[in-house]
Amino acid sequence: MNYYPHSEELAGKLDGFFRHIRSTTLPSNYSSSDSSNTGNESQSQLVQVKIMMDANLSSLTLSNSYTCPMMVTNTTNPSYPSSLSNNQMMIQRGIVCAGTIVIDYVIIVDRWPVESSLSNIYHETKTGGGGPFNVLKDLRSMDINLPLSIVGFLGNDDNGQWLIDDCKKSNIDVHQLHKTKDSTPTSYTYVMSVESTGRRTFFNQRGTNALLTDIHFDFNHIVNKKYCNLFYLSYLTVLNELDRIIDNETVAGKVLKQAKEYGLETIVDFVSAENLLYSKIALLTLPYVDHLIINEIELGFILNQALQQATIIEIEQAARILIEKYHVQRTVTIHFDCGAVCISRENDQKLESFIQGSLCLPKGFIKGAVGAGDAFAAGFIYGIYKKWPIQERLSCAVCVAAMCLSDETPYGGVKSIEECMKLKEIYQFRILNTTSRISDMI
Protein backbone atom coordinates (compact mmCIF):
# COMPACT_ATOMS: atom_id res chain seq x y z
CA MET A 1 0.00 0.00 0.00
CA ASN A 2 1.07 3.57 -0.67
CA TYR A 3 0.56 6.29 1.93
CA TYR A 4 0.10 9.91 0.90
CA PRO A 5 0.39 12.92 3.23
CA HIS A 6 -2.08 15.84 3.16
CA SER A 7 -5.00 13.45 2.84
CA GLU A 8 -7.78 16.06 2.77
CA GLU A 9 -6.16 17.94 -0.10
CA LEU A 10 -5.54 14.74 -2.03
CA ALA A 11 -9.06 13.48 -1.38
CA GLY A 12 -10.38 16.72 -2.84
CA LYS A 13 -8.25 16.27 -5.92
CA LEU A 14 -9.43 12.69 -6.28
CA ASP A 15 -13.04 13.80 -5.99
CA GLY A 16 -12.59 16.29 -8.81
CA PHE A 17 -10.62 13.76 -10.79
CA PHE A 18 -13.28 11.05 -10.68
CA ARG A 19 -15.99 13.49 -11.72
CA HIS A 20 -14.09 14.05 -14.96
CA ILE A 21 -13.23 10.45 -15.84
CA ARG A 22 -13.76 9.71 -19.49
CA SER A 23 -13.37 6.55 -21.58
CA THR A 24 -10.27 5.69 -23.59
CA THR A 25 -11.95 4.13 -26.64
CA LEU A 26 -10.36 4.98 -29.98
CA PRO A 27 -12.94 4.69 -32.81
CA SER A 28 -12.05 2.45 -35.73
CA ASN A 29 -12.17 5.44 -38.10
CA TYR A 30 -10.12 7.71 -35.83
CA SER A 31 -7.87 10.36 -37.33
CA SER A 32 -5.61 12.46 -35.11
CA SER A 33 -6.64 15.52 -37.11
CA ASP A 34 -10.37 14.79 -36.63
CA SER A 35 -11.62 17.54 -34.36
CA SER A 36 -14.79 15.59 -33.63
CA ASN A 37 -12.88 13.11 -31.47
CA THR A 38 -12.43 15.11 -28.28
CA GLY A 39 -12.22 14.11 -24.68
CA ASN A 40 -15.36 16.10 -23.86
CA GLU A 41 -17.41 13.75 -26.04
CA SER A 42 -16.00 10.56 -24.55
CA GLN A 43 -18.23 8.21 -22.60
CA SER A 44 -17.87 7.72 -18.87
CA GLN A 45 -15.67 4.85 -17.71
CA LEU A 46 -16.28 2.69 -14.67
CA VAL A 47 -13.43 2.97 -12.20
CA GLN A 48 -13.16 0.71 -9.17
CA VAL A 49 -11.37 2.37 -6.32
CA LYS A 50 -11.09 1.70 -2.61
CA ILE A 51 -10.20 4.72 -0.51
CA MET A 52 -9.48 4.27 3.16
CA MET A 53 -8.68 7.03 5.61
CA ASP A 54 -6.20 6.24 8.37
CA ALA A 55 -6.83 8.74 11.17
CA ASN A 56 -3.67 7.82 13.06
CA LEU A 57 -1.42 8.50 10.06
CA SER A 58 -3.59 11.37 8.75
CA SER A 59 -3.02 9.85 5.33
CA LEU A 60 -4.80 8.38 2.38
CA THR A 61 -4.31 4.74 1.46
CA LEU A 62 -5.02 3.42 -2.01
CA SER A 63 -5.54 -0.35 -2.12
CA ASN A 64 -4.29 -2.82 -4.73
CA SER A 65 -7.66 -2.59 -6.51
CA TYR A 66 -6.87 0.95 -7.64
CA THR A 67 -7.42 0.70 -11.40
CA CYS A 68 -7.78 4.24 -12.57
CA PRO A 69 -6.02 5.39 -15.79
CA MET A 70 -4.14 8.65 -15.94
CA MET A 71 -5.71 11.63 -17.63
CA VAL A 72 -3.18 13.82 -19.42
CA THR A 73 -3.93 17.45 -20.18
CA ASN A 74 -3.11 19.23 -23.42
CA THR A 75 -2.02 16.18 -25.38
CA THR A 76 -2.60 15.13 -28.97
CA ASN A 77 -2.97 11.50 -27.90
CA PRO A 78 -6.69 10.80 -28.46
CA SER A 79 -6.83 8.32 -25.60
CA TYR A 80 -6.62 11.01 -22.97
CA PRO A 81 -9.20 13.81 -22.56
CA SER A 82 -7.91 17.34 -22.21
CA SER A 83 -10.63 18.47 -19.81
CA LEU A 84 -8.69 17.93 -16.57
CA SER A 85 -6.79 20.66 -14.79
CA ASN A 86 -3.09 20.38 -14.02
CA ASN A 87 -3.94 20.21 -10.31
CA GLN A 88 -5.74 16.91 -10.66
CA MET A 89 -4.01 13.68 -9.78
CA MET A 90 -2.55 11.75 -12.70
CA ILE A 91 -1.97 8.02 -12.48
CA GLN A 92 -1.99 5.79 -15.55
CA ARG A 93 -2.08 2.01 -15.47
CA GLY A 94 0.81 0.20 -17.15
CA ILE A 95 1.80 -3.01 -18.91
CA VAL A 96 4.53 -5.38 -17.70
CA CYS A 97 6.08 -8.01 -19.97
CA ALA A 98 8.22 -10.91 -18.75
CA GLY A 99 10.00 -14.03 -19.92
CA THR A 100 12.21 -14.80 -22.91
CA ILE A 101 14.61 -11.92 -23.60
CA VAL A 102 17.35 -12.42 -26.16
CA ILE A 103 19.81 -10.83 -28.51
CA ASP A 104 18.74 -11.61 -32.07
CA TYR A 105 21.28 -11.86 -34.85
CA VAL A 106 19.00 -11.52 -37.88
CA ILE A 107 20.71 -12.98 -40.94
CA ILE A 108 19.11 -12.44 -44.35
CA VAL A 109 19.84 -15.29 -46.78
CA ASP A 110 18.92 -15.99 -50.39
CA ARG A 111 17.27 -19.34 -49.65
CA TRP A 112 16.97 -22.01 -46.99
CA PRO A 113 19.51 -24.69 -47.94
CA VAL A 114 19.00 -28.42 -47.86
CA GLU A 115 21.30 -30.17 -45.40
CA SER A 116 25.01 -30.12 -46.40
CA SER A 117 24.47 -27.40 -49.04
CA LEU A 118 25.19 -23.66 -49.07
CA SER A 119 23.13 -20.50 -49.04
CA ASN A 120 24.35 -16.90 -49.37
CA ILE A 121 24.20 -14.30 -46.60
CA TYR A 122 23.10 -10.88 -47.86
CA HIS A 123 23.42 -8.97 -44.59
CA GLU A 124 22.90 -9.29 -40.85
CA THR A 125 21.66 -7.14 -37.98
CA LYS A 126 21.96 -7.32 -34.20
CA THR A 127 18.79 -6.44 -32.29
CA GLY A 128 17.02 -7.19 -29.05
CA GLY A 129 14.41 -9.91 -29.24
CA GLY A 130 12.12 -12.34 -27.48
CA GLY A 131 8.42 -11.88 -26.79
CA PRO A 132 8.60 -9.41 -23.87
CA PHE A 133 11.23 -7.20 -25.48
CA ASN A 134 9.55 -7.14 -28.90
CA VAL A 135 6.08 -6.50 -27.51
CA LEU A 136 7.33 -3.64 -25.33
CA LYS A 137 9.27 -2.04 -28.18
CA ASP A 138 6.18 -2.30 -30.40
CA LEU A 139 3.94 -0.80 -27.71
CA ARG A 140 6.38 2.05 -27.18
CA SER A 141 6.34 2.84 -30.92
CA MET A 142 2.54 2.68 -30.92
CA ASP A 143 2.04 4.92 -27.89
CA ILE A 144 4.78 7.04 -26.35
CA ASN A 145 2.72 7.63 -23.18
CA LEU A 146 2.25 4.02 -22.07
CA PRO A 147 3.94 3.10 -18.77
CA LEU A 148 5.93 -0.05 -19.61
CA SER A 149 8.00 -2.44 -17.48
CA ILE A 150 10.04 -5.58 -18.18
CA VAL A 151 10.99 -8.62 -16.07
CA GLY A 152 13.78 -10.98 -17.07
CA PHE A 153 17.11 -12.60 -16.27
CA LEU A 154 20.24 -11.55 -18.17
CA GLY A 155 23.88 -12.50 -18.27
CA ASN A 156 26.56 -10.30 -16.73
CA ASP A 157 27.91 -9.56 -20.20
CA ASP A 158 27.86 -7.00 -23.01
CA ASN A 159 24.65 -8.39 -24.49
CA GLY A 160 22.87 -8.11 -21.16
CA GLN A 161 23.97 -4.51 -20.72
CA TRP A 162 22.99 -3.75 -24.33
CA LEU A 163 19.43 -4.90 -23.60
CA ILE A 164 19.22 -2.86 -20.39
CA ASP A 165 20.50 0.28 -22.11
CA ASP A 166 18.12 -0.16 -25.03
CA CYS A 167 15.13 -0.52 -22.70
CA LYS A 168 16.14 2.65 -20.87
CA LYS A 169 16.33 4.53 -24.18
CA SER A 170 12.75 3.47 -24.86
CA ASN A 171 11.60 4.55 -21.38
CA ILE A 172 10.90 0.97 -20.29
CA ASP A 173 11.32 0.35 -16.56
CA VAL A 174 14.22 -2.09 -15.97
CA HIS A 175 13.93 -2.42 -12.17
CA GLN A 176 13.34 -6.16 -12.55
CA LEU A 177 15.87 -6.96 -15.26
CA HIS A 178 18.12 -9.13 -13.10
CA LYS A 179 21.73 -10.12 -13.90
CA THR A 180 23.36 -13.44 -13.11
CA LYS A 181 26.49 -13.55 -10.95
CA ASP A 182 28.01 -16.48 -12.83
CA SER A 183 29.21 -16.92 -16.43
CA THR A 184 25.86 -17.98 -17.93
CA PRO A 185 25.43 -15.86 -21.08
CA THR A 186 22.50 -13.69 -22.02
CA SER A 187 20.31 -15.75 -24.32
CA TYR A 188 20.84 -15.17 -28.04
CA THR A 189 19.30 -16.43 -31.26
CA TYR A 190 20.51 -16.70 -34.83
CA VAL A 191 17.48 -15.85 -36.95
CA MET A 192 17.92 -17.09 -40.51
CA SER A 193 15.44 -15.19 -42.69
CA VAL A 194 14.90 -15.96 -46.38
CA GLU A 195 14.79 -12.67 -48.31
CA SER A 196 12.13 -13.62 -50.86
CA THR A 197 9.60 -15.05 -48.39
CA GLY A 198 10.45 -13.60 -44.98
CA ARG A 199 10.34 -17.12 -43.55
CA ARG A 200 12.50 -17.53 -40.44
CA THR A 201 14.36 -20.40 -38.81
CA PHE A 202 15.77 -19.97 -35.30
CA PHE A 203 18.87 -21.31 -33.55
CA ASN A 204 18.68 -20.40 -29.86
CA GLN A 205 21.09 -20.45 -26.93
CA ARG A 206 18.75 -20.35 -23.92
CA GLY A 207 21.39 -18.96 -21.56
CA THR A 208 19.96 -17.06 -18.60
CA ASN A 209 16.36 -17.41 -19.83
CA ALA A 210 16.52 -21.00 -18.61
CA LEU A 211 17.17 -19.69 -15.07
CA LEU A 212 14.28 -17.21 -14.80
CA THR A 213 12.01 -18.36 -11.98
CA ASP A 214 9.35 -17.16 -9.51
CA ILE A 215 11.80 -15.37 -7.18
CA HIS A 216 12.55 -12.84 -9.92
CA PHE A 217 8.99 -11.43 -9.88
CA ASP A 218 8.18 -8.63 -7.43
CA PHE A 219 4.45 -8.06 -7.90
CA ASN A 220 4.33 -5.54 -5.09
CA HIS A 221 6.63 -3.33 -7.17
CA ILE A 222 4.73 -4.11 -10.39
CA VAL A 223 1.33 -3.19 -8.96
CA ASN A 224 1.98 -0.68 -6.18
CA LYS A 225 4.97 1.16 -7.65
CA LYS A 226 4.40 0.88 -11.39
CA TYR A 227 0.61 0.59 -11.28
CA CYS A 228 0.51 -2.13 -13.94
CA ASN A 229 -2.75 -3.94 -14.65
CA LEU A 230 -1.71 -6.16 -17.59
CA PHE A 231 0.89 -8.94 -17.23
CA TYR A 232 2.26 -10.65 -20.35
CA LEU A 233 4.44 -13.78 -20.06
CA SER A 234 6.22 -15.60 -22.90
CA TYR A 235 7.49 -17.88 -24.30
CA LEU A 236 6.35 -20.89 -22.31
CA THR A 237 7.99 -24.28 -23.06
CA VAL A 238 11.46 -22.70 -23.52
CA LEU A 239 11.75 -21.20 -20.03
CA ASN A 240 13.24 -24.17 -18.20
CA GLU A 241 12.62 -23.12 -14.60
CA LEU A 242 9.20 -21.60 -15.24
CA ASP A 243 8.18 -24.72 -17.19
CA ARG A 244 9.13 -27.01 -14.29
CA ILE A 245 6.31 -29.06 -12.81
CA ILE A 246 6.24 -29.23 -8.99
CA ASP A 247 3.34 -30.84 -7.12
CA ASN A 248 1.24 -30.92 -10.29
CA GLU A 249 1.73 -27.20 -10.91
CA THR A 250 4.12 -25.37 -13.22
CA VAL A 251 6.26 -22.62 -11.76
CA ALA A 252 4.80 -20.37 -14.49
CA GLY A 253 1.33 -21.25 -13.23
CA LYS A 254 2.40 -20.25 -9.73
CA VAL A 255 3.66 -16.89 -11.06
CA LEU A 256 0.47 -16.28 -13.05
CA LYS A 257 -1.68 -17.21 -10.07
CA GLN A 258 0.18 -14.68 -7.95
CA ALA A 259 -0.23 -12.05 -10.68
CA LYS A 260 -3.99 -12.61 -10.66
CA GLU A 261 -4.08 -12.38 -6.87
CA TYR A 262 -2.54 -8.91 -7.25
CA GLY A 263 -5.34 -7.98 -9.65
CA LEU A 264 -3.35 -8.27 -12.88
CA GLU A 265 -4.97 -9.44 -16.10
CA THR A 266 -2.73 -12.21 -17.49
CA ILE A 267 -1.68 -12.76 -21.11
CA VAL A 268 0.46 -15.68 -22.30
CA ASP A 269 2.24 -16.79 -25.47
CA PHE A 270 4.00 -20.07 -26.23
CA VAL A 271 6.78 -20.87 -28.71
CA SER A 272 6.82 -22.92 -31.90
CA ALA A 273 9.27 -25.52 -30.63
CA GLU A 274 8.67 -29.16 -29.83
CA ASN A 275 8.67 -30.16 -26.18
CA LEU A 276 7.68 -33.58 -24.85
CA LEU A 277 5.80 -31.85 -22.03
CA TYR A 278 4.20 -29.16 -24.22
CA SER A 279 0.60 -30.28 -23.67
CA LYS A 280 1.06 -30.94 -19.95
CA ILE A 281 2.71 -27.56 -19.37
CA ALA A 282 -0.26 -25.95 -21.11
CA LEU A 283 -2.82 -27.99 -19.16
CA LEU A 284 -1.30 -27.01 -15.80
CA THR A 285 -0.72 -23.35 -16.69
CA LEU A 286 -3.68 -22.18 -18.78
CA PRO A 287 -6.23 -22.03 -15.92
CA TYR A 288 -4.36 -18.94 -14.69
CA VAL A 289 -4.39 -17.25 -18.12
CA ASP A 290 -6.96 -14.61 -19.07
CA HIS A 291 -5.82 -14.18 -22.68
CA LEU A 292 -3.88 -16.73 -24.73
CA ILE A 293 -2.27 -15.53 -27.97
CA ILE A 294 -0.57 -18.25 -30.07
CA ASN A 295 -0.22 -19.43 -33.67
CA GLU A 296 -1.65 -22.54 -35.30
CA ILE A 297 1.57 -24.52 -34.79
CA GLU A 298 1.55 -23.88 -31.04
CA LEU A 299 -2.16 -24.71 -30.92
CA GLY A 300 -1.32 -28.04 -32.56
CA PHE A 301 1.47 -28.74 -30.06
CA ILE A 302 -0.90 -28.16 -27.14
CA LEU A 303 -3.59 -30.46 -28.56
CA ASN A 304 -1.20 -32.97 -30.16
CA GLN A 305 -2.69 -32.25 -33.59
CA ALA A 306 -1.21 -31.09 -36.90
CA LEU A 307 -3.15 -27.91 -37.74
CA GLN A 308 -1.02 -26.20 -40.39
CA GLN A 309 -3.43 -27.50 -43.05
CA ALA A 310 -6.57 -26.94 -40.97
CA THR A 311 -9.62 -24.94 -42.07
CA ILE A 312 -10.85 -21.86 -40.22
CA ILE A 313 -13.69 -23.94 -38.77
CA GLU A 314 -11.21 -26.53 -37.48
CA ILE A 315 -9.08 -23.79 -35.92
CA GLU A 316 -12.18 -22.40 -34.20
CA GLN A 317 -13.11 -25.82 -32.84
CA ALA A 318 -9.58 -26.41 -31.55
CA ALA A 319 -9.46 -22.97 -29.90
CA ARG A 320 -12.73 -23.68 -28.11
CA ILE A 321 -11.11 -26.71 -26.47
CA LEU A 322 -8.55 -24.44 -24.80
CA ILE A 323 -11.35 -22.61 -23.02
CA GLU A 324 -13.66 -25.55 -22.37
CA LYS A 325 -11.08 -28.17 -21.32
CA TYR A 326 -7.84 -26.26 -20.67
CA HIS A 327 -9.74 -23.50 -18.86
CA VAL A 328 -8.32 -20.31 -20.39
CA GLN A 329 -10.41 -17.67 -18.64
CA ARG A 330 -11.39 -15.09 -21.27
CA THR A 331 -10.02 -15.23 -24.82
CA VAL A 332 -8.03 -17.61 -27.03
CA THR A 333 -6.59 -15.97 -30.14
CA ILE A 334 -4.96 -18.02 -32.89
CA HIS A 335 -3.04 -16.13 -35.58
CA PHE A 336 -1.73 -17.45 -38.88
CA ASP A 337 -0.47 -15.99 -42.16
CA CYS A 338 -3.90 -15.25 -43.64
CA GLY A 339 -5.53 -13.90 -40.48
CA ALA A 340 -6.71 -14.80 -37.01
CA VAL A 341 -9.50 -16.41 -35.01
CA CYS A 342 -10.53 -15.40 -31.50
CA ILE A 343 -12.81 -17.38 -29.21
CA SER A 344 -14.10 -15.31 -26.31
CA ARG A 345 -16.12 -15.79 -23.17
CA GLU A 346 -15.49 -12.38 -21.66
CA ASN A 347 -17.98 -11.20 -19.05
CA ASP A 348 -18.91 -14.85 -18.36
CA GLN A 349 -21.02 -14.98 -21.49
CA LYS A 350 -21.39 -17.92 -23.86
CA LEU A 351 -18.51 -18.56 -26.26
CA GLU A 352 -18.31 -16.18 -29.21
CA SER A 353 -16.17 -16.53 -32.33
CA PHE A 354 -14.47 -13.70 -34.22
CA ILE A 355 -12.57 -13.96 -37.51
CA GLN A 356 -10.17 -11.41 -39.01
CA GLY A 357 -8.32 -11.57 -42.31
CA SER A 358 -4.78 -10.24 -42.61
CA LEU A 359 -3.97 -7.33 -44.91
CA CYS A 360 -3.32 -8.03 -48.60
CA LEU A 361 0.12 -6.46 -48.94
CA PRO A 362 1.76 -5.62 -52.28
CA LYS A 363 4.85 -7.34 -53.58
CA GLY A 364 7.98 -5.79 -52.11
CA PHE A 365 6.26 -4.58 -48.92
CA ILE A 366 7.54 -7.46 -46.81
CA LYS A 367 11.17 -7.04 -45.76
CA GLY A 368 11.13 -9.73 -43.06
CA ALA A 369 8.76 -11.63 -40.80
CA VAL A 370 10.90 -11.69 -37.65
CA GLY A 371 8.77 -10.47 -34.76
CA ALA A 372 5.49 -10.48 -36.70
CA GLY A 373 3.80 -12.77 -34.18
CA ASP A 374 4.93 -10.55 -31.32
CA ALA A 375 3.67 -7.50 -33.21
CA PHE A 376 0.29 -9.19 -33.58
CA ALA A 377 0.32 -9.82 -29.82
CA ALA A 378 1.26 -6.19 -29.14
CA GLY A 379 -1.68 -4.98 -31.22
CA PHE A 380 -4.10 -7.29 -29.44
CA ILE A 381 -2.69 -6.33 -26.02
CA TYR A 382 -3.10 -2.65 -26.90
CA GLY A 383 -6.75 -3.36 -27.65
CA ILE A 384 -7.15 -5.10 -24.29
CA TYR A 385 -5.53 -2.14 -22.56
CA LYS A 386 -7.89 0.27 -24.32
CA LYS A 387 -10.88 -2.00 -23.64
CA TRP A 388 -11.76 -2.18 -27.32
CA PRO A 389 -14.26 -4.75 -28.63
CA ILE A 390 -12.75 -8.06 -29.80
CA GLN A 391 -13.10 -7.26 -33.51
CA GLU A 392 -11.26 -3.96 -33.05
CA ARG A 393 -8.48 -5.74 -31.16
CA LEU A 394 -8.07 -8.20 -34.04
CA SER A 395 -8.08 -5.42 -36.61
CA CYS A 396 -5.40 -3.59 -34.64
CA ALA A 397 -3.36 -6.78 -34.25
CA VAL A 398 -3.22 -7.57 -37.98
CA CYS A 399 -2.40 -3.94 -38.82
CA VAL A 400 0.50 -3.82 -36.34
CA ALA A 401 1.74 -7.20 -37.60
CA ALA A 402 1.61 -5.92 -41.18
CA MET A 403 3.57 -2.81 -40.24
CA CYS A 404 6.19 -5.03 -38.60
CA LEU A 405 6.69 -6.84 -41.90
CA SER A 406 8.00 -3.63 -43.49
CA ASP A 407 11.36 -4.01 -41.71
CA GLU A 408 13.79 -6.92 -41.38
CA THR A 409 14.19 -6.44 -37.61
CA PRO A 410 11.65 -7.67 -35.01
CA TYR A 411 10.24 -4.23 -34.18
CA GLY A 412 11.82 -1.58 -36.41
CA GLY A 413 8.83 -1.43 -38.75
CA VAL A 414 6.17 -0.65 -36.15
CA LYS A 415 4.99 2.97 -36.04
CA SER A 416 2.42 4.95 -34.05
CA ILE A 417 -1.02 3.42 -33.53
CA GLU A 418 -2.48 5.97 -35.94
CA GLU A 419 0.00 5.01 -38.68
CA CYS A 420 -0.56 1.30 -38.08
CA MET A 421 -4.34 1.62 -38.31
CA LYS A 422 -4.10 3.68 -41.51
CA LEU A 423 -2.86 0.55 -43.30
CA LYS A 424 -6.42 -0.77 -43.42
CA GLU A 425 -7.40 2.33 -45.39
CA ILE A 426 -4.65 1.63 -47.92
CA TYR A 427 -4.86 -2.16 -48.24
CA GLN A 428 -7.81 -4.53 -48.10
CA PHE A 429 -8.36 -7.20 -45.49
CA ARG A 430 -8.14 -10.73 -46.81
CA ILE A 431 -11.52 -12.46 -47.15
CA LEU A 432 -11.43 -15.73 -45.23
CA ASN A 433 -13.42 -18.74 -46.37
CA THR A 434 -14.18 -20.73 -43.24
CA THR A 435 -14.12 -24.04 -45.11
CA SER A 436 -10.79 -23.41 -46.87
CA ARG A 437 -7.42 -24.43 -45.48
CA ILE A 438 -5.50 -21.58 -43.88
CA SER A 439 -2.45 -22.56 -45.94
CA ASP A 440 -4.38 -22.04 -49.20
CA MET A 441 -5.55 -18.45 -48.62
CA ILE A 442 -2.23 -16.61 -49.02
Descriptive overview:
The chain is α/β, with parallel strands linked by helices and 442 residues long. It folds into two domains: 1-92, no CATH class; 94-440, UDP-N-acetylmuramoyl-L-alanine:D-glutamate ligase (3-Layer(aba) Sandwich). The protein has helices at residues 7-19, 131-142, 158-169, 219-225, 240-243, 251-261, 278-285, 296-303, 312-324, 372-385, 390-404, 417-426, and strands at residues 2-4, 51-54, 59-62, 94-99, 102-109, 121-129, 148-154, 172-179, 188-194, 200-205, 228-236, 245-246, 249-250, 265-270, 291-295, 331-336, 339-344, 352-357. The strands form four sheets. The protein has a nine-stranded mixed β-sheet, sandwiched between helices. It has a four-stranded mixed β-sheet with strand order 6-5-9-10. Strand 12 and strand 13 form a beta hairpin. Helix 2 (131-142) crosses helix 10, helix 10 (372-385) packs antiparallel against helix 11 (390-404) and helix 11 (390-404) crosses helix 12 (417-426). The protein starts with a strand and ends in a 16-residue tail after the last helix. Residues 94-407 form the Carbohydrate kinase PfkB domain. It holds the Pfam family PfkB. This is Carbohydrate kinase PfkB domain-containing protein. Keywords: Kinase, Transferase.
| CATH architectural name of the largest domain | 3-Layer(aba) Sandwich
Rg, alpha carbons:
22 Å
Amino- and carboxy-terminal Cα gap: 52 Å
CATH topology of the largest domain: UDP-N-acetylmuramoyl-L-alanine:D-glutamate ligase
Oligomer: single chain
Count helical runs. Answer: 12
Indicate the topology.
Blueprint: E1 2-4, H1 7-19, E2 51-54, E3 59-62, E4 94-99, E5 102-109, E6 121-129, H2 131-142, E7 148-154, H3 158-169, E8 172-179, E9 188-194, E10 200-205, H4 219-225, E11 228-236, H5 240-243, E12 245-246, E13 249-250, H6 251-261, E14 265-270, H7 278-285, E15 291-295, H8 296-303, H9 312-324, E16 331-336, E17 339-344, E18 352-357, H10 372-385, H11 390-404, H12 417-426
Helix pairs in contact: 2-10, 10-11, 11-12
GO molecular function, one term: kinase activity
InterPro entries: PfkB_dom, Ribokinase-like
GO biological process, one term: phosphate-containing compound metabolic process
